[in-house]
Amino acid sequence: MHRHVYVHVPFCSRRCSYCDFSIAVRRVVPVEEYLRALDAELAVRFGNAEAAEVDTIYLGGGTPSRLGGEGLARAIALVRRHFSLAGNGELTIEVNPEDLSEENATAWVEAGVNRLSLGTQTFDDAALRWMHRSHDASAIETAVAAARAAGLENVSLDLIFALPAELRRDFAADVRRLLALRPMHVSLYGLTVEPRTPLGRWVGSGTAVERPEEGYEQEYLLAHELLTSDGLEHYEVSNYGRPGFRSRHNSAYWASVPYVGLGPSAHGFDGQVRRWNASGYAEWRDLTFAARDPLAGSERLDEGNLIAEGVYLGLRSDAGLPLLPGERDLVEPWLVERWVVIEADGRLRCTALGWLRLDSLAAALTHSRSR
User: Fold this and answer.
1) Taking the alpha carbons of 144, 145, 150, 155 in that order, is the dihedral positive or negative?
2) Cβ-based neighbours of 316, under 8 Å, separated by 6 or more
3) Are 185 and 240 in contact (CB under 8 A)?
4) CATH 3.20.20.70 residue ranges for the chain
5) CATH architecture under which domain 4-254 falls
6) Could you tell me which residues are beta bridge partners of residue 116?
7) pLDDT digits (tens, 9 = 90+) for 117-164
8) In CA terms, which of 6, 16, 141, 244 is 20 to 30 Å from 303?
9) Beta bridge partners of 46
């Protein structure tokens, strides 16, 4: 049974310079049209069945807050007609600072929202302009204050590291300014260069230079030191939470727990089969308006897929991975390099240094287990 629901809201006011996600840039957001399409997808896929209880609901994007206070509250209400949230459930929405007024936050709280993920990225105004973000650093602090005034204490802040050196962004200062806001959770993302983005074109033309691996590692480890020293637990390669405030929704992905995906490009998983929706907003909308499932494709995981995913997902969080007989010799070099530790319960866990080498560690163990 599905225990989690993800809803993709694709709208953005502009495309960030690094973004390769499925978004729909709209000056005027078609709120009513989107809500009709979401309602239609829910009806096609789940009909009039009794609402199933779930542990988390997460609205991501894109920028869900572009739907506004009332629009986002109505989207949540549509989902909750088909999926009731458990009494201690987690309901998260992704929000951009410029959309977070106290009035909007109050509407979202009344709709059941109890967790915000705020698209911070950096507190450096020049870097925000370079990213094509639509807010400045002061808007972040104003947004956090508005959220707390509305009673939302569980606020997660995003931060991007490894920006090009020519931007002269002071990363340590960024982390300290973030910590001054006392977030309950922090998501830390390294800048990646995707080919079909403004950043990809800048790097291709030589007008921007990707940060070398040494700089990437230095800032990742610096963030680890500063965030954990402030009491945040580094519980997954890119995520930190204060005790009791880990992201329950994202943790479900890393544990391969079944979840429903709604909206354009959304993925879902039932424990055996992964499915994904049509990626373009217009295609998804038209399919749902025609009372058709907006399914674009699906994949049944075979034994090899399950082994690979089990290894990778286990190593990427502090839950770790149980070592199998005969694997101690394989991981011995990693232990010497202090990339991993073996805990008293026999589970292999990555250190912060090891998470920087996650792909190679996972590949070696997957190869060993697939023979």
Assistant:
1) positive
2) 236, 237, 254, 350, 355, 358
3) yes
4) 4-254
5) Alpha-Beta Barrel (3.20)
6) 93, 155
7) 999 999 999 999 999 999 999 999 999 999 999 999 999 999 999 999
8) 6
9) none
